[in-house]
Structure formats: structure tokens, C-alpha cells
Design brief:
alpha/beta, Protein-Tyrosine Phosphatase, Chain A, five-stranded mixed beta sheet, 9 helices
Length: 301
């Protein structure tokens, strides 16, 4: 059966470089649907250190990490000052679709299976659901948990919640900007969110610095750093150069993803989409298409 898998992969890859219409993206072997949240998960304790999976891409004027706690964000702002970046130049780019916020500075999120608690909600509905949850917490005792490898709650910590700000509110405390592009965990970013991101990013002043983060600082963060890198540096830099650069900085190697179960199909789609986005960017810069990314995908699904 191995030769069949290799042959299928070669067929997909060869079609990507033939030009013209694209083959259909690999099918996702899971039903993506909302999974109700059931526990407050600890994303990051409130300690004065850089968040996990933190990395800096100075030429791109960008950085990435996992979810920062309040003191983690302070550490990011301080580290970027060493790179010559002032707080007012920084935009906290929040890629999380799932509801999240802070219990007295510790970063927490409302976890459902696969981290899909807000799947299917429009961005405004995501924000509204999050604000509603957090606004009810101040002055109450709440418990948050770490998650085991099997995503089961463990190590409960009960706290009296004195402050439960949103991330946007916290960013303002540190004098940095905030922009959210809510994307589903484990998957390639939704086309509409990529459209909105590109339209927004193209309006930024040259001195702007984007700090991308998701929950762990791996999947969605790597995807957006690669998207931004491609948008800025293709075609003079090859796709392989860009994905290798992002991997060496500490992200995923987007052309060599491995997983089992349904995540194998999710990763196959990521590989397909990053190649497709690179080709789209090349065509866009050459004036061969005026389509948005989402419109391009309707013609090349």
C-alpha cells in the first residue's frame, strides 16, 4: 500500500506545478463542527518570561508565540525593545477562534473537544461570546485546569477572579495595538480571514511590527507567519526558502508535516494550501489575477 500513497502524493504535487486549474484539495477526514466548551484551560501562567515558542523574524518585522499571559506580554514588549521596536509599533495579532482571556493575569481559554468551541461562529459572534463569558467572572471563584496528553482536565487551581480582561483590553495596558483574525485550530486558516488579514496588513505603516500568536504558537502562528512572509517576499524567495526559514525560527516545516488519524488529512490540506497560496501570490504580483484569495479558491478548490 505504501507505493499507492507515494503515487497519490506524487500526482498531487505534480499537478500543483502544471499551471492552470488546480486539482481539488485533499479531503478532510473529520467533520468540523462546534464542540461545546466544558473547562477553563490554563494556557500560560502569569510569570515574567517570554511565552512558549517565541521567535523573532526581524527582516519580516514580525514575531510569533503561544498565548501570552499578562507578564508574558510584558516580556515580549521588553524583548522587542531590544530589537529597536517601540510598543506603539507593535500589533498583537490574535489568531484564536476559541474564547480566551485572563484570570488575574494568567491566560486561560474555554476548551471544548479539538479546541472547537466556537467553530462556525462569525468573528463578531466569537467576540460577543467571549465578552459575555469574561464579564461574568470578576469577583467569583473559578477553577482552571491543565490538560493531559489525552486532553483531560488535571491539576485544578481555584482562584478568586479579581480581573478578567479580554486580550484587547490587556494589550491596551501595554500600549500595543490589537487585531484578531479568528481561525479554527488544527486547520489551515479560513480563506475569508486571510482576505481580511491581507487587506488590513497592506494598510500598515512600514514601521509596524506584527506579533502573531495562537494557543501553542505552532499551527496557526506558523501558517500566518508563512502567509505574511510569502506575501512580502515571493517570488524572489522560493516557497522552500520561506517555509525552511520559518521552520528554523521555531515554527512548523509546512512542507513536511506528519501526523496520524484525521490530522494526517488536515496536514495534507495545509501542504496543499501553502503551495497554492504561494502560486496565488506570484500570480497576483504578476498581474495575472485580480481575485481575492477566497475568490481564487472558488475557482481552484
Amino acid at each position: 500500500m505504501q507505493w499507492k500513497k507515494r503515487a497519490a502524493l506524487w500526482l498531487v504535487v505534480s499537478q500543483l506545478f502544471m499551471g492552470g486549474a488546480w486539482a481539488a484539495a485533499p479531503a478532510l477526514q473529520v467533520k468540523v463542527e462546534r464542540e461545546p466548551g466544558f473547562v477553563w484551560r490554563l494556557d500560560a501562567p502569569n510569570t515574567l518570561k517570554l511565552p512558549r515558542n517565541y521567535r523573532v523574524d526581524q527582516p519580516l518585522r514580525a514575531s510569533g508565540s503561544g498565548q501570552p499571559s499578562a507578564l508574558n506580554l510584558a516580556a515580549v514588549v521588553n524583548d522587542l525593545k531590544a530589537w529597536g521596536v517601540e510598543p506603539g509599533q507593535v500589533v498583537d495579532v490574535d489568531l484564536r477562534q476559541e474564547s480566551h482571556g485572563y484570570f488575574n493575569g494568567a491566560a486561560v481559554s474555554w476548551y471544548g473537544k479539538n479546541n472547537w468551541g466556537n467553530v462556525g461562529l462569525a468573528p463578531a459572534a466569537v467576540t460577543a461570546a467571549e465578552n459575555r463569558q469574561l464579564s461574568q467572572l470578576s469577583g467569583r471563584e473559578e477553577t482552571y485546569y491543565s490538560l493531559s496528553k489525552k486532553k483531560l482536565p488535571k491539576d485544578p487551581v481555584s482562584v478568586q477572579v479579581l480581573l478578567a480582561p479580554t486580550e484587547e483590553q490587556l494589550a491596551a495596558v501595554f500600549g500595543v495595538g490589537y487585531k484578531r483574525f479568528p481561525c479554527t485550530d488544527h486547520l489551515w486558516p479560513e480563506a475569508q480571514q486571510v482576505d481580511v488579514f491581507l487587506q488590513w496588513a497592506d494598510t500598515l505603516p512600514p514601521e509596524a511590527w506584527l506579533h502573531f500568536h495562537c494557543q501553542a504558537g505552532v499551527g496557526r502562528t506558523t501558517a500566518f507567519l508563512a502567509i505574511w512572509d510569502i506575501w512580502r517576499n515571493a517570488p524572489q524567495d522560493s516557497l522552500e526558502t520561506i517555509t525552511d526559514r520559518q521552520a528554523k525560527l521555531g515554527g512548523l516545516d509546512l512542507l513536511n508535516l506528519k501526523a496520524t488519524g484525521w490530522m494526517e488529512s488536515a496536514n495534507a490540506r495545509k501542504i496543499y494550501r501553502v503551495r497554492q497560496f504561494y502560486q496565488y501570490t506570484v500570480e497576483k504580483k504578476a498581474g495575472k489575477t485580480n481575485l481575492s484569495w477566497s475568490e481564487y479558491l472558488k475557482q481552484n478548490p
